[in-house]
UniProtKB/TrEMBL annotation, chains A, B:
InterPro entries: GntR_C, TF_FadR/GntR_C, Tscrpt_reg_HTH_GntR, WH-like_DNA-bd_sf, WH_DNA-bd_sf. One of its GO terms (molecular function) is DNA binding. This is GntR family transcriptional regulator. The keyword DNA-binding applies. Residues 9-76 form the HTH gntR-type domain. Keywords: DNA-binding, Transcription, Transcription regulation. It comes from Antarcticimicrobium luteum.
Length: 216, 216
DNA sequence: CTGGCAAAGATTGGATACAAAAATACGTAT
DNA sequence: ATACGTATTTTTGTATCCAATCTTTGCCAG
């Protein structure tokens, strides 16, 4: 937060980014009401940019906005998670198919570096690194709208990951699937890579849904 | 819409809706700059709700918002259309798969009524009826986020349809494919219906891309 | 004549001010 | 004691105002 003498620019985006990371990290419980004035004080600004940021987050599905009734942090439920996973399972392979021909060795190395970090990092960084790895592979697909769609889904997904990140076998399995996916990408084998990616998203979804059921 | 004494409520949404239909209908040329003050006069309000509405439309991809530089109607280009079509081609079958078990005969009849209208309606209504037919089939899928995603893509798609709606063989082919799709839905044959839907979106995409190339 | 620079105008972003609606608290009547 | 109605308070939505940035126009130098 670089809120010192910033008298100009696009602060709504910055506020949205800060709130986004907070919501994803679970700093607000689902259903928490977000008061405009309170957020304005917190970011040393007026309510106006806050309102803009809430609209942004609403479209991303992180907050729910009711007219004259304020904003609430979007709830988390199994049905919503399944829906997000289904959408990821079709959108990400589409991006990967077009990304693979464009992937450079340097980009593959960067993706691998993220994997290395993920395997040693603390559990609370698992979600962010997971998202970073996926996007590193998909970024070169040259489809900006698709990418931002996937990025939004990744954010939503990450909220749920915090609920089961401590499941160690889930993390181990995810890492293994990531390694296999990366290998397929190195071979420039789009067919295999997309299949692995779909399977990875489905298996992660099923594992987390099972964890949610037991955690009930 | 022209209700002047409306001193309360959520006017930003209404302004956004009005602008949305205008942009989709092609009332503004792509790239047109949208001045806040001008829109405020037009809707008999201040710039504030206009700003909110522009944010909404930006998230939907209908306008592009540059900081300190105003809002422009999003441009139309072949690459963008192809990207949208690809996303529709994976998202809509996903929705249809889950909608088919929920589809009632009444809903199928309503979809057919839309088709009947589409075949006799004027060319400028083709896009709207096309969108209505697709959403009528997909609506019962019980996945609100997926549906709103598809609705947004349909709006973007509709902008392009105006460019080729007068291609009569395109319209005829689209109608025939819609009929076949509807028949598969009546049979509750999800496999066949999803295949037809994918093929329909791909063929429509290719036809329009070809029309764009010749129109060059 | 052309290119850059500067001042004036236009336009957006943000802050403050005001009005309406929701939420809350309180009091009264049953 | 509870339920309902009203007044108060809180919060959001809209309007107006100010500051900062972008644009445009005109001038001057090369």
């Amino acid at each position: 937060m670089t809120d010192k003498p910033s008298r100009t620019g696009a602060t709504a985006t910055q506020i949205a980014a800060a709130l986004r990371t907070d919501i994803i990290a679970g700093a607000f419980a689902p259903g928490t009401v977000l008061r405009q004035e309170e957020l304005a004080r917190r970011f040393h600004t007026s309510r106006m940019p806050v309102r803009d940021s809430l609209r942004i987050l609403e479209q991303e599905g992180l907050v729910i906005l009711a007219t004259n009734r304020g904003a609430r942090v979007a709830p988390l439920d199994a049905a919503g998670f399944r829906e997000i996973s289904e959408m990821r399972a079709v959108a990400e392979p589409l991006a990967l198919k077009h990304a693979i021909p464009e992937l450079t060795n340097r980009q593959l190395d960067q993706a691998e570096a993220i994997l290395d970090q993920a395997e040693t990092a603390a559990a609370d960084r698992f979600g962010a690194l997971n998202k970073a790895f996926h996007l590193a592979l998909l970024a070169p697909c040259q489809r900006p709208r698709l990418l931002s769609h996937i990025a939004g889904l990744s954010d939503l997904n990450e909220r749920y990951l915090h609920l089961a990140a401590r499941e160690l076998d889930y993390a181990a399995r995810s890492h293994a699937e990531h390694r296999a996916l990366l290998a397929a990408c190195r071979d420039r084998d789009a067919e295999r890579a997309c299949g692995l990616l779909t399977a990875h998203i489905v298996s992660a979804s099923e594992a987390l849904l099972a964890a949610l059921r037991t955690a009930d």
